[in-house]
């Protein structure tokens, strides 16, 4: 990722316009949102007419919620869903429409009329923050932390159960 940043911006500070020209950075952010959505559930939706969903009859006026994590980790939708693999979005193997317009394969910000109005701003800021963190610092595994524990716990959002510890060194 650092090489991509250097190639795109050289020695200047990366800005939000630069991040649009960084396919690997964008793939990493999409994979982060797929593997670790900000929340596990969407806002409640009310069924407007009777429908059959996954073999189940859902009557009108039923409130439904979507388990975002389950969708983004479904082996019927994703190849090797437990693996963190940003390349899945570069090779054309898999699609990452996070708005749900083409298909609902992941929805970290919801979909449809209730999609998060901050989606655009959030993705720009996540891309920019990650790019700047990589541009400005070298990141190393903390001594004794060779394995990353991806266990999560539910708070207001989904967070790591055991915080990720890293050594950070400014790039000179």
From TrEMBL:
It comes from the Eukaryota. Heme binds at residue 116. The gene is LOC102604467. One of its GO terms (molecular function) is monooxygenase activity. Pfam families: p450. Keywords: Heme, Iron, Metal-binding, Monooxygenase, Oxidoreductase. This is Cytochrome P450 77A1. Its cofactor is heme. Belongs to the cytochrome P450 family.
């Amino acid at each position: 990722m650092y090489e991509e940043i250097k190639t795109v911006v050289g020695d200047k500070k990366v800005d939000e316009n630069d991040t649009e020209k960084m396919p690997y950075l964008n793939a990493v952010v999409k994979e982060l949102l797929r593997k670790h959505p900000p929340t596990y559930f969407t806002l409640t939706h009310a069924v407007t007419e009777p429908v059959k969903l996954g073999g189940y009859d859902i009557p009108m006026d039923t409130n439904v919620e979507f388990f975002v994590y389950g969708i983004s980790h479904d082996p019927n939708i994703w190849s090797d869903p437990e693996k963190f693999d940003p390349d899945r979005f570069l090779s054309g193997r898999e699609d990452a429409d996070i708005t749900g317009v083409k298909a609902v394969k992941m929805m970290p910000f919801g979909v449809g009329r209730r999609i998060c109005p901050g989606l655009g701003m959030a993705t720009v800021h996540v891309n920019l923050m990650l790019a700047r963190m990589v541009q400005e610092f070298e990141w190393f595994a903390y001594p004794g932390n060779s394995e990353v524990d991806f266990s999560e716990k539910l708070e207001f959002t989904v967070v790591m159960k055991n915080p990720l510890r890293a050594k950070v060194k400014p790039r000179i």
